[in-house]
Each structure stands twice: as structure tokens, then as C-alpha cells.
């Protein structure tokens, strides 16, 4: 059972609408339905960033403030995944670009093909996406239980801060067997 | 699968907690500790699958927030953040007394209108 956090009671008293909902209503957010490209020439425009976690790039709906404080509403027209550096909005004066936040990752440097196989099988078994880097590393977002498992199996995992790029992602849940 | 039942459970809890204004929910924030065995990407993907089944939820955003692990050191009587899986206090003593990191909870709900 997923419980409500204990401070929810207080928040309930503060309603109607919670202060955040009221604030966002004051001004319509910029609506983003798709990526306008990557590596687009933006001239002298002021660049603002929308920072997201790596696991938010697949979300179809995101309400957030940009780093410059502008309210945006991502409401994807299709189910595409955003990539780091995607242009989300552009006007005469400004542009909003997607930025994926770095996070703690378990980094593995398998020394042989058998290790690659075992590691990918074990992680894939948990349906967690794997990121293969150009340096032939296997990266996966830090998870305490996974780290313990890989460590005790002798794979010598280390933890490093990285950006997990969606285009490097290999996922074991792509077979739509989720329901 | 584990995550799809978690997501369903979140919305069941919300429906019970807010029977009158459940249909005005625009954003739900769920906190998951790094020791909770919950993968945010799988929660997000399970939610995307649920939207397809239940289009009434398509205006709702589900946000997952990861909570860092916090442990308690008895020697210093202080809490410390476990960084890079090091369950060791600044004083050098190890501790596995977990204060935060195992939870999975609904931490914020936003409604439209009003
Ligand atoms: Zn200490």
C-alpha cells in the first residue's frame, strides 16, 4: 500500500488548490508538444534550460519551471523520448533547451564478453535500463540493492556521477509485457 | 508487474483520500527512497501504460522524486547522508541504522481550478 506522506494532512488544510496550483494559474505556462530539433542554431537568443531527471525523458506530461523561472507544460503529441539538448521552445528573443541532470550511476567495466552477458542479464532481469557508453562501460542508475548484488557477485562496481543519455539506453521492457 | 501495481495503488489511495476532487488532480508527487527497491523509470513507464488504459488520467502528471539514504551514527548522535553507498559517518564509524531511504509515499497532490 502506498501511503500519503504524514505532512499531507497539513497541506490539506492549506488548500484550496495548494499555493503551487494557484501560482501556475496566474500565468499560462508555455506549452511544449514536441522537440524542435537538436543542435539548432540559436543566434543571439537567451538560452534557458528545462532540467529533468534521466527517467523523465519518456514522460508525456511535465509541469515544471525552467532554470530561468518560466512555467512550462510538456504535453507530448506523441510518445517520443526527449534527448539531452533538445530544443523545446524558441521565440525571437529566447530558447528553452532540455538538460538532463547528472545522477549517481553504477559503472561497470566488464573485462570479457561472459561478464557483459551476466551483468546485462542480471540487470535486465530487474527490467532496469542499461546504458552502454562509448568507453565500453555498462552504466545503470544507482540503486542500493542492485549495487549490493553486483558487488557481492564480484563485478567491482563503482559509483560515479554521470548523465544517462536516452540514446545510449538498452531496455529490457521494450516488449510491452508490462500489463 | 511490481511497478504497475504500485501506480494503480497510488491512484486508489488518492481516490479514497479525495473522493470529491479526485478528477481535478493535475499532479501527483511520489517519493521513493534509494533503498525502496523502486525504479523511477519503471514507475514512469507503468504510469504511461496506465494512461493508455485510463484516458481520464491523461491530464495528470506523475512525478517521482528520489530520496537520498540517511543513516544515524550512535557515536555522534547525528544523522548523515549515505553518499556513493558509503554507510560511514564523518567520524569514521560505519552505521546501517537507516533514518530515510526505504519509504515509498505520496508526498504532494495538486488540483486544478479554485
Ligand atoms: Zn559518527
UniProtKB/TrEMBL annotation, chain A:
GO terms for biological process: protein folding. The gene is ureE. It comes from Dyadobacter flavalbus. SUPFAM superfamilies: Urease metallochaperone UreE, C-terminal domain (SSF69737), Urease metallochaperone UreE, N-terminal domain (SSF69287). This is Urease accessory protein UreE. GO terms for cellular component: cytoplasm. Keywords: Chaperone, Cytoplasm, Nickel. Residues 29-96 form the UreE urease accessory N-terminal domain. Residues 1-20 are annotated as: Disordered. Belongs to the UreE family. The lineage of its organism: Bacteria, Pseudomonadati, Bacteroidota, Cytophagia, Cytophagales. It comes from the Bacteria. The keyword Chaperone applies. Its main location: cytoplasm. Coiled coil: none annotated. It is found in: Cytoplasm. Involved in urease metallocenter assembly. Binds nickel. Probably functions as a nickel donor during metallocenter assembly. GO terms for molecular function: nickel cation binding; unfolded protein binding. It holds the Pfam family UreE_N. InterPro entries: UreE, UreE_N, UreE_N_sf.
Automatic annotation (TrEMBL), chain B:
Gene3D superfamilies: 3.30.2320.80. Transmembrane segments: none annotated. The keyword RNA-binding does not apply. Keywords: Metal-binding, Nickel, Zinc. It comes from the Bacteria. It holds the Pfam family HypA. One of its GO terms (molecular function) is zinc ion binding. GO terms for biological process: protein maturation. PANTHER family: HYDROGENASE MATURATION FACTOR HYPA. This is Hydrogenase maturation nickel metallochaperone HypA. It comes from Dyadobacter flavalbus.
